[in-house]
Specification:
With 180 residues, the chain is α/β, with parallel strands linked by helices. It has a single domain, classed as Rhodanese-like domain (Oxidized Rhodanese, domain 1, 3-Layer(aba) Sandwich), CATH 3.40.250.10. The protein has five helices and seven strands, in the order H-E-H-E-E-E-H-E-H-E-H-E. The protein has a five-stranded parallel beta sheet with strand order 1-6-5-2-4, with helices on both faces.
Length: 180
């Protein structure tokens, strides 16, 4: 009987240790690869929103929602006459889509696009609440929110469930186009 109890206790400790080991901590810098993977539960300097928190903030209309889903460029080597159709993006109503700004390393041109897009979306007010999102388990929104903090934005929110969490709740979406 004692042997079974010891075994069960050992198994519980082993499992709880494995769970703790599986908890992700924030990296010091940006996530540089494998962007579709489990994300940490926090982002230093930002407020992390669950589905209900994101919905409540969206309903106030006070925050700017920034969708950072990347968009594949049109292939340069398409045969002449090939029709290229970008994939439609259905997102949180009213969201601003800033494409390709969530990678760990971004080109100077992308950095300028991100800064300008944020300035336009917030009307130049770095204290205005901004909510960054993408898809569930996507580091793009984490990277973008971290970058915005580095730009001096002071009311940064991160919605890690993104449009996956939004649509799982059967909340409305709308088709959006990237900010040029």
């Amino acid at each position: 009987m004692i042997g079974i109890r010891v075994f069960i206790l050992f198994a519980v400790l082993l499992i709880s240790g494995a769970l703790r080991a599986g908890e992700l901590t924030e990296p010091d810098g940006y996530r540089m690869e494998n962007y579709r993977a489990p994300v940490p539960a926090s982002l230093a300097g930002a407020t992390v929103l669950d589905d209900m928190g994101a919905r409540a903030l969206w309903e106030t209309g006070a925050a700017v929602f920034i969708d950072v889903l990347p968009r594949a460029p049109k292939p340069k080597n398409l045969p002449e006459g090939t029709i290229w159709r970008d994939k439609a993006r259905h997102s949180i109503p009213g969201a601003v889509w800033l494409v390709n700004v969530g990678y760990g390393a971004i080109a100077a041109e992308t950095d300028a696009y991100f800064r300008e897009g944020l300035a336009r979306a917030t009307e130049g007010d770095k204290t205005r609440p901004v909510v960054f999102f993408c898809l569930a388990e996507c580091w793009m929104s984490w990277n973008a929110a971290k970058r915005a903090l580095g730009y001096g934005y002071t009311s940064v929110h991160w919605y890690p469930d993104g449009t996956d969490g939004w649509t799982e709740n059967h909340w409305e979406t709308e088709r959006i186009e990237p900010l040029p």
